[in-house]
Inverse folding.
């Protein structure tokens, strides 16, 4: 099947392909009366826009968003908000040989196996271009939960991690890697440049923190915050892992080492640790929500790889089309958007049931 | 909110608390004509049943399942299948002091923050006892996709991992740890015994493999197999991380090292690697589906931990109630069940759209 | 498919067959802290219970409900509420010949066509017995919207309608027909007795009114109150028509005759008419919500009817099993339940989006 | 809440307001490989287009549809199909006084009560213009179930009904009323002209028949065909009633008179009657599916009606804006679209569960 809608009360549906005329999102269930204009959305799109540095794909897309419905006199009306972004810089010729052979690691073979047929231009629907629509919807979600601050950054590229001791929030927007560690950012320049020049690619780990989430948001059992966040992040292209709080590290700990003790605080409890990433029993504890997401290296590389053709013959393919040497970098605003979208939904759900 | 239903076409809804009279699942959307009796479900429940070894909680529950609807003349009718398991060995007194103070790391505080009120007996709805209902539903799911084999095991306990070189499928059911490495199983006896005796607890990593999944199952974009599996596993108590294929390890690789080359095979392509865990673009490639799940150590420990009372006073709590020194162990049949439930749903979804 | 769940935030799932061991409902999404016990549900079940007068089926079912989960210390916890009703008085032998030939007008042939197989005992899943589970869930829904009063009655049986001039709310519970017109009730005794004795059956029209619904509930566009109410009522066995407000009569009116003028009232507008049945644009106006539901006569009649056997041979069938001469009568509490369930859901949805 | 998505597997989401820049639909879950171009959709839009005769609103909209995604090389890809229709002939000034007073019978007051705010231009989201998006989506649905023929017509206007004896399918497209009775069509010219000239409006009854629906489609219990069709039709602007088969007339019949006897036929049973409208137990019997829908007269009339202003003062309003004297007429293609959308969804659901 195809399920292009995400969310339960605050829902969005995305549409569009890499080389179609446009792509977009329809946001449904947004509360009424929220001030909204393109200017509230564009900055987030600019953050993920391609072609902004030599470390991202050279495809040049303005990613200009238009609001086609759901807003009147500058405020949301409670009806669906249609957001559209036109594609401008498609170069379908770049992808001609993708029609002749499957790119291993990409969705090419799987889509053909499922649908018997695919739009091979730039990966069609499976292209990361679709994430522009998520970022646009995410910008609306942020306005639904203004008390929440969602912030993501790159924690490691190709296995080279930041030094937590160097963490500086102010650095994140000062370099093309969303890197909070100035020294790591310098190392990554060399690292990503090398990958780019050799036509290779690198994986990355993104970390995200959401502060201001009140205790109580979350929906046991199958819409636990952990579940919703995992589902949201795993739906992002190239994501292959997610951890809430300490994640896999917690699996190596004892109960004593993993405890999050509480003591009376000014309003609500003061927590002495946050191994659980701000979620217990699927419900927010009021602590910062913390998660980490693993992006695999893009499978678009210049090195020829063994593969087969749609008709089953042996072939090799080298991806020449423009692409990101490290897709994880531009994953930062996308992870932020998905987390914001989950939290906006949970906010409405909580109010719906618990008033 | 409370969302106790999982799935899109093959759906199940669970209900029940740790110390209520019973718990159960209603399976809806199951295809008709499938031979089904309690005997098809009971073995899977027995696999997760408590009190089977000294390494699990000493609560003794027969976990006998009854089919109350949806089956006629030994076959499914296509209508909802109601499965019920009665609780037998509740000892609510064990949990009396849980009413007086929140157990850090448990859902106690979060449930109160959300609902203003909670069933504190054995964790109420947030108890891992609910997973019995999932295992029962999962047994039905297995019958919907008989071509698929879902198999999970424990890969590490408290940071002590198996040696892949020792992997022996036959070993998994030969020890109380679902451990495929006989040597590791011996080490874990000592490890878990020590934790049990000291009233401590240990985290664990579960690995799961599903073979026989045909290429094409999966549902872009927000019901990608990766997403559905992540959502399903993250909804299990104590789970804090999930990886598909190489997961976080892939984030440290280059595109060349992470490639899954293909060459012509007997039927469909032969893959030379499986870093992606059998899923590309959210759709199955026909390779084995591989995932890993991180279970945190249970927060139920004898060591007193700083906490607060429902009225906000400082307190300490030590959990005396019967519990698992390593909840991850009994997570094995639960992970298997959730994976089977996702695959049964995807099988019907694929047939519905692409049939 | 099989979709046995209804609702969006306040959801219920029903299960069970006419001749299975039990049937039930799982209510999910109910707000926490609501006082609830079996005593709040039983009276509504008693209202639809069979065998209470000679005008309903002689099957004798106590329809005793048990709450198996979701309630602690006499209050809802916000987690799923499992309600179970055991079947006591099944007489499967009565239905033996239903296995040999399809009862025209019943679901027999259609279920076989869909599922290739059916539980023919008393109609299995398609039996009106399932509505007991709806009435139990509806009793919970009423407690979620205590400001709302949902009241239904029989407006016509076999084409013999009440005289609006005789409408007396107090009469409704004074006769076995839920009839607000004492004179009509007398006529119906003769009418229904005749049908019962001749083994015939009669259709009926049920009217329902919900007062206390605040302006603003409702969810454009595809969850309009009109749509949700229509969907809810059309899902009841034997229902073949629904009207909101004037319904089909409005189709014969001019815009002037159909207008619902407003003038300033004490709080909000005072309406001078209610042709629209209290709903405009799918949203409640604050007026009483009014609807009418058409129940066809049950197809269970003594007169032999031409039919075919599952193997396609010509046959005739006369239904001897116990049944209602006029199913519409016992439809009254069922319509009330479905309306209450829709309104509880809409109340939570409205709070969720519009706070 | 706002729920602008309809369907379970074959789903569509609509967006847009009467006076916004555009409106559209996103169709998700459509099977792959279906030949689709704008030319397959435009004829159905032309059928409901305004300004085609003096009997419909004089607003002139080309209603030209564009396919923005989901189609490649002229075939559906299985990914979301985005359909957009630009608004051309908005005259917002016409609606200025709608801002100052609520139009009784319209959604004006209810939307304000719900959202505290509304787009009053032409009714904003509650305008029947939204149905253009449904018709576009419905055109895609027809291609999903090519074996099904969905055909609707006007059965009565302002209480003046056709004579069944005069029914002639060929006539339906020969007059501006979709009227199968040539004589009635002539009478309606006078009737609707009079209403139009006096600035009045008339209600209408639409009948719809779907042939070629195989026995077995439908989804008990809460997605019964009756329920889905009722929900779909009741979501159309101005619809206040729906009947399946004989509907309310059946409520006046005896079981004998309402029976649909069967006898062995060439393939499957031959039915001797179709009181049930082709649906038993919520599942298609293979007979033609028959339903009737009641459209109220539009509340837009020249006669001043008592009302109130958003600030609660007494006012009167007469609707001068361009509108349909009988909205039911243009409801014909909309009812057809909704029925086709329900059947496409049920076709996929049936295949998903019953293969």
């Amino acid at each position: 099947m195809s399920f292009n809608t995400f969310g339960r009360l605050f829902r969005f549906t995305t549409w569009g392909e890499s080389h179609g005329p446009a792509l977009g999102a329809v946001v449904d269930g947004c509360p009424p009366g929220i001030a909204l204009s393109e200017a509230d959305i564009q900055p987030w799109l600019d953050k993920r826009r391609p072609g902004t540095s030599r470390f991202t794909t050279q495809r040049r897309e303005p990613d200009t968003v238009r609001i086609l419905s759901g807003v009147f006199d500058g405020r949301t009306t409670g009806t669906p908000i249609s957001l559209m972004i036109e594609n401008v810089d498609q170069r379908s010729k770049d992808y001609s040989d993708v029609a002749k052979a499957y790119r291993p690691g990409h969705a090419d073979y799987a889509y053909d196996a499922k649908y018997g047929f695919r739009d091979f231009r730039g990966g069609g629907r499976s292209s990361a271009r679709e994430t522009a629509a998520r970022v646009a919807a995410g910008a609306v979600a942020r306005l639904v939960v203004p008390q929440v601050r969602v912030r993501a950054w790159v924690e490691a590229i190709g296995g080279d991690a930041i030094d937590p001791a160097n963490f500086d929030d102010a650095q994140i927007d000062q370099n093309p890697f969303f890197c909070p560690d100035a020294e790591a950012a310098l190392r990554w320049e060399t690292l990503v440049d090398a990958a780019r020049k050799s036509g290779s690619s690198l994986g990355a780990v993104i970390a995200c923190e959401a502060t201001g989430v009140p205790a109580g948001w979350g929906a046991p059992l199958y819409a636990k915050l952990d579940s919703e966040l995992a589902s949201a992040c795993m739906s992002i292209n190239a994501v292959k892992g997610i951890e809430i709080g300490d994640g896999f590290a917690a699996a190596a700990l004892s109960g004593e080492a993993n405890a999050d003790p509480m003591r009376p605080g000014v309003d609500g409890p003061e927590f002495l640790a946050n191994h659980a990433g701000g979620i217990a029993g699927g419900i927010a504890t009021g602590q910062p929500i913390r998660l980490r997401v693993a992006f695999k290296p893009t499978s678009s590389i210049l090195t020829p790889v063994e593969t087969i053709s749609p008709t089953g013959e042996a072939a090799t393919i080298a991806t020449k089309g423009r692409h990101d040497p490290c897709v994880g970098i531009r994953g930062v605003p996308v992870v932020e958007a998905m987390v914001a979208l989950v939290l906006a939904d949970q906010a409405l759900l909580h109010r719906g049931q618990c008033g």
